[in-house]
């Protein structure tokens, strides 16, 4: 199974932002995504009693807060000094240029928002747990984690907060499992019920592992496989489950197998009804056609005759058509001409003016398949009979 793409998630957690390079009036600039703390701060910077000016300032401070590298130098370590000077430069730019920058920044932040959905799955992976073991005592925005000076002043984004929460919950869960295992081991000396509890715990841990694995691969976790009606099919692996299933059967409740059979019967009935409805529809259409042709609902006038009479009538019609063809009544039709040509070719019909035989041919027909036949056969039959007189 292919591993999901967690590149955006890793950048948002271990660097703190996504980046987008650009160039404005020949100056290379690398923009980054904003977290909620940075966005709130930019909104406060842009406060003004003049609503039109406040809107323009909000755009400029939003762009200024999104700068990571300006002319190949990081501005994160001293953003307070960079903010206001760069905002003055942005105010001198045409509104269309600022709109283009804001559009690209919106797309970049949308990628970061979409990556939030995959933080939980990434947290359950081996790489995430390994990094957590190394960095658990450090803040995700610490420069020793990000490798970038000044990230400690940015605050934590939602990805870093969720990653910290999921891994901390995993640690607590593992610690509880260890303590519970010790408790069962101590109780196993005095009770035989511990083996039953232990089997239930194994099933629970296996289901939890399958759920986390499904989340890691981007799937929706389920307690069991889905049935034909969307119901969850859970396998019975313990005595209590089997006893519960037996009780439901005795009470007349429907289990998964009953639902499968009922669904199959429903589909068979539905197909049969569809076939009958289609037949009825075609019959109605045929009745309309016959009514317009014969002026009644009679499908075919021939139904008034007996079966033998119908067969005889069919033979007579075929014979009449053949005789008409032989008489040349349909000579004007191309099909008749082609048929006549084929019949002459096979020697079934003779030409009105006999064609003189080819040289060496003893048969009166010429240029026909039968003529070729006689060319081969006549020399063989030209020997003297033993009964002829010498």
Main features:
two-stranded antiparallel sheet; 6 strands; four-stranded antiparallel sheet
Task: Please tell me about this protein's structure.
By secondary structure, the chain is mainly alpha-helical. Among the domains are: 7-168, no CATH class; 249-301; 307-345. The chain is 60% helix and 6% strand. It is built from 15 helices and six strands. The strands form two sheets. It has a four-stranded antiparallel sheet. Strand 3 (67-70) and strand 4 (73-74) form a beta hairpin. Helix 3 (51-65) packs across helix 5 (95-115). It is flat and about 110 Å long. The termini are far apart.
- Multimeric organization: single chain
Q: Tell me, what's the shape?
A: flat
- Which structural class do the helices and strands define? mainly alpha
Beta strand %: 5-15%
Largest sheet geometry: 4 strands, antiparallel
Helix content: 55-70%
Strand order of the largest sheet: 1-2-3-4
H/E series: HEEHHEEHHHHHHHEEHHHHH
Parts with pLDDT < 50 across at least 5 consecutive residues: 224-232, 297-306, 376-383
* Mean pLDDT over the full residue set: 77
SSE arrangement:
Layout: H1 7-14, E1 19-24, E2 27-32, H2 36-45, H3 51-65, E3 67-70, E4 73-74, H4 79-91, H5 95-115, H6 119-123, H7 126-135, H8 143-146, H9 158-187, H10 194-216, E5 225-226, E6 232-233, H11 239-250, H12 256-294, H13 307-327, H14 334-345, H15 369-380
Helix pairs in contact: 2-3, 3-4, 3-5
What is the compact description of this entry?
The protein has helices at residues 7-14, 36-45, 51-65, 79-91, 95-115, 119-123, 126-135, 143-146, 158-187, 194-216, 239-250, 256-294, 307-327, 334-345, 369-380; strands spanning 19-24, 27-32, 67-70, 73-74, 225-226, 232-233.
